[in-house]
Fold each of these.
Amino acid sequence: MTNPEFTQPEENEQTPQADNGAETNGSAAETTDQPSAEQKLQSENAELKDKYIRLVAEFDNFRKRTLREKDELVKTASENVIKAILPVLDDIERAQATYGEDGKVDTQGIELIFNKLTKAVAGKGLKAMESKGQAFDPDLHESITQFPAPSEDLKGKVIDEVEKGYYLGDKVIRFAKVVVGV
């Protein structure tokens, strides 16, 4: 009994094996494309390596250049301060040369030198800290001692300033040494 709907193919007839042949031809085509894809990936890899090496070299040059510039800036900054103070040193030498025979110094000349020095360092951003009468602030003041306050309103405040504090710009470069009332 054979089913009329289903018949067996004869040996000479083409079977779905022809599809297998097409697949093999397709894979052969893929094989020829694959080396070009590999070459493309290799060239892309080489390009990325080159970019990476150049970036590392550029960063190293940047680091070296910034270190050089920083050193030059530090040298230049101190040079400018020294140049600003040199005229004051000259004035002090002149004042020493004019000491009287009795060893007395002209106070007016000392005041002029002090004012000149104050103006020179103020031009570089230095300013004195006002502490006397202010509330004690450990971020600005260094308490040397505590002393009984002469009045009730001076408790916890600076009574006397032993050594001035200074700002350079907005930064405290020397804390004021003070006496605090208790």
Note: The CA atoms of residues 33 and 163 lie 84 Å apart.
Amino acid sequence: MEVEYKAKRWTRMRVISGKYKGRQLDPVPNRLTRPTTDKVKEALFQIIGPFFQGGNCLDLFAGSGGLGIEALSRGMEKAVFVDKQPKAIRTIHDNLRTLALEDAAEVFRTDAFMAMKAAGRRGLQFDVIFLDPPYGKVSYEKLLEAVDTYHLATQKGLIVCEHENREKLPDQYAGFSRRQTEVYGSTTSITIYQRKEQ
């Protein structure tokens, strides 16, 4: 989540639902991070959940960690957060500490592709993978190819791509098929992929 965020003041975010419903989260204190709005986050989890009975998630380009924390609040057992901005990493740690979620999370300051390669070497797999790169800066095709190459998605795992409305993602990417696309407002779309049926 690393494109310019034009808000004049840093607004606090909140956990939408689950165990930590209503708890406040700090945003990343810079103008490089574009947080997922509460409206989009709520709609997104209604599609992919809305609640989970355990499982693991990967929050790439994590920013403040809002998506991964929301997944933990809704029943995910573990979350891995990745961002390359130092301020983002500090914010993720602060938010996890506030909710006493440190034991349910791993946080890495690194490039997304390096993180995926490292996760693959460890044999990690995820039930939900959040991909929210800077708009227009990172190829979703390359991201999904990496997910496929390193076998990061479970058999029924979901890959959630947040992108600009004007960017139309195709029906097929690497080993995944598009399940659905939803449009929110004038700028944001969510496209969800799942592994192709064999």
Note: The first strand starts at residue 13 and ends at 14.
Amino acid sequence: MKAVFDHLAISAASLEQGALAIEAMLGVGLEPGGKHAFMGTHNRLLSLGPGEYLEVIAIDPEAPRPDRPRWFRLDRFSGPPRVTNWVLRIDDLEAALAEAPPGAGRPVELERPPFRWRMGVPDDGALPFDDAFPALIEWQGNLHPAGALPDRGCRLLRLEISHPKGDRLRAVLPIADRRISIVTGPKAIRAEIATPHGEWWIE
């Protein structure tokens, strides 16, 4: 199974609050994203280079409440904007979910025109290992959000995932990327981003 880093998810109590916080941290502007009708959420985006991006995501106050828990535990989110999740791109969602720990989700067809994708969506909105396990996504067609974003010169340098069961998490991850490290410790996800203004950690 092929798996590569796709994007970071920064959750926020409101999209404006999240976008302002990340723009202040990194010194670059975010781009308009769109709305996810299935989950009642919306986002803003930042390119991290070819095939990779950063997403600020929040509940859309204008959208009807979905009949299921929102992804990334957004229904229970509180506090300042922070990195809550990371997403791996795979080429066979069913095979990836069959090999993933229980709770990685079931395949769901999604779209935010012009983009279409399939994603493993947990019924309760929570991913394994307290959300330290990545969400799994399979893009449909040739379009990817990163390809539609201007390159602001930002790149992911390091992604560090800490969890009390770090060894077990490392054993079930379907990825080999030298930028990504799994450590044993209190649950946390943080990323080092190179920008035109220097290198910064966000968490």
Note: DSSP finds three helices and twelve strands in the chain.
